[in-house]
Amino acid sequence: MFITTFNIPETALKNELDLITALEQRKAARKILLGRAVFASPELTVSTALTIDLSTGGLSLILPKALVEQPNCAVSFDVPLQYQPQRVLVSGRVISCQRKAPQSYRVGVQFVHADWDSFEMIRMAIDHNLHAAIV
């Protein structure tokens, strides 16, 4: 990709480069998934969470406390399928955490492992039952 700097303010160029970098990091399209989840940290601390969006590579959650990037975690949540929601369990790693409000943090979890059935249910929900998220 070629970006010209002719008559573009430096701040606008930086913002465009940040956007390009962010888009390159996102490997799969996100779909809206609003629901309840259970988040477990490596120390076996369990928190209830709300799911925000989902892709085949990970999901975003709202948690009541800040998290540092962690190499291991587990998340259990429901995905909508044709007749009824199905519970899936995935292991992942926390890759981002942004404060959104007091006691409200948006946490990005990248999937590391899911059994074949869970991954297939996630893929089917994304392909057929969820709407695209607005970035």
Commentary on this structure:
By secondary structure, the chain is α+β, with helices and mostly antiparallel strands. It contains 2 helices and 6 strands; from the N terminus they run H-E-E-E-E-E-E-H. It has a 6-stranded antiparallel barrel with strand order 1-2-3-6-5-4. A hairpin with a 2-residue loop joins strand 5 and strand 6. The protein is globular, with a radius of gyration of 17 Å. 21% of the residues are buried.
Question: In summary, what is this structure?
Answer:
This protein has 135 residues and is an alpha+beta fold. Helix content is 21%, strand content 48%.
Low-pLDDT parts are: 1-24
Structural class by helix and strand composition: alpha+beta
Largest sheet: 6 strands, antiparallel, barrel
Broad shape? globular
End-to-end span in angstroms? 21 Å
Query: What is the oligomer described by this structure?
Result: single chain
**How many individual β-strands?**
6
Helix content: 10-25%
